[in-house]
Design brief:
With 213 residues, the chain is an alpha/beta fold. The protein is built from eight helices and nine strands. The protein starts with 7 loop residues before the first strand and ends with a strand. Bound molecules: adenosine-5'-triphosphate. It comes from Dentiradicibacter hellwigii.
Length: 213
């Protein structure tokens, strides 16, 4: 269960310019505990750029992002500790197995995860049996995506930023990921995700933002 003390992501007057093009300006929203924001838009409309701004990997041309009322630039590592980012690349070590990748990702996030808990996380994404022991470089794209997303099954961070979490997943895995996201939101977490797909999210407080509209 997440500590619910004052979870709030505030975005004020955000402007983003990349490659000489303005992607958006005057973008403002607030998310509090138990809320999910689904970001949509055409290819190139700025969805990934927005997530990179939200996690502090990109700096805005104008505007500010606050977490728990404090600018994320000032929070630094204290903000990153509360953040689970899954980018559209899987960030897996090809030579390591799914089990090893899940345990390594947990370790980097400061979470102690034994073998049984890592197996359980993979099982929640439908990865069981010998697949757990095959180096990730030999898995299919969808299987790799499942391994990357298994991090969500053991994540303790309250804020999840997910770039195209459903890309490359089949219907069963899409359902598993939607269920994990739904559980996190119901437990009071905050989620921002980008997607091109229409996925039924088991969440009552889901909001949508369309970039480039
Ligand atoms: N490193 C970069 N340098 C310059 N411009 C960039 C860079 N990365 C992205 N862009 C530009 O920013 C714009 C938005 O890219 P972004 O990846 O945020 O879009 P997106 O909405 O996530 O697209 P997609 O749906 O294709 O994933 C694009 O026009 C892209 O060319």
């Amino acid at each position: 269960m997440i500590s619910l003390i004052f979870l709030m992501l505030d975005v004020f007057g955000l402007e983003c310019i990349r490659g000489g093009h303005r992607l958006f300006r005057d973008l403002s929203f607030r998310l509090t505990d138990g809320e999910l924001l689904q970001v949509q838009g055409d290819n190139g409309s700025g969805k990934t750029s927005l997530l990179r701004l939200l996690c502090g990997l990109l700096l805005p041309v104008a505007g500010e992002i606050r977490w728990r009322g404090v600018p994320i630039a000032r929070l630094g590592v204290d903000f990153r500790r509360e953040l689970c980012l899954i980018g559209h690349r899987d960030a897996l070590k090809n030579e390591l197995t799914p089990l090893e990748n899940v345990r390594m990702a947990a370790h980097l996030a400061g979470i102690r995860l034994d073998g049984a808990a890592a197996r359980d996380a993979l099982a929640q994404l439908g990865l069981t049996g010998e697949t757990e022991e095959i180096p990730c470089g030999r898995l299919s794209q969808g299987q790799r995506r499942r391994v990357a997303l298994a991090r969500l099954a053991c994540a303790r961070q309250p804020l999840w930023l997910l770039d195209e979490p459903f890309a490359a997943l089949d219907a069963a895995a899409t359902g598993c990921v939607a269920a994990l996201i739904g559980r996190h939101v119901r437990c009071g977490g905050v989620v921002v995700l980008t997607t091109h797909q229409t996925v039924d999210m088991p969440v009552t407080a889901a909001r949508r933002l369309t970039l480039g509209a």
